[in-house]
Amino acid sequence: MALDGRSVAYDISLFETTAERLEEQKRVPRRRHNVVSLPEEDLIKNSRAKRGPAKIFTGVLLGAIITATVAFIIHGQVQLTELNQKINNAAADLSDQESLYTQLQMKVDSKLSTAEVEEYAESKLGMSKADSYQKEYISLSQGDKAEVAQEEGSNIFESIAQAFASLWS
Fold this sequence. Notes:
Layout (H helix, E strand, L loop, with lengths): L1 E2 L2 E2 L11 H9 L12 H8 L5 H59 L2 H10 L32 H13 L1
Antiparallel strand pairs: 1-2
């Protein structure tokens, strides 16, 4: 790089103060420093974080809300886990009981087959199957009828008792 046609790499004359250089420096305006100086008291006052009672209260309240929310979530998860465990235990018990029911039903079916019941009825009880001549068919073309038989000569106490009984049934 050349300054006024000279090489500045090893130009020691740049550091010398000559009259010509002094005049050149006077012509070039000096830059002012943009540094603001504060008194030490103001510097300490501005460096401290301002925490008023409202900010402290807000911080404590926010921390309490977050803590309560986390506690409710954890409590809900614990309850959910306990209920899932109860459901799993109940499902296992149900499966065991269904298996036991199936086993017992198979034992009952094997011991009480229709052939064994018919044989027991014929041999031990002396029963026989009904023949066609023993069967009698009736027709109900007139419809169903019902009659209620009432005793005559009941006293007042029996009728009150019957009224109360009919209310409960």
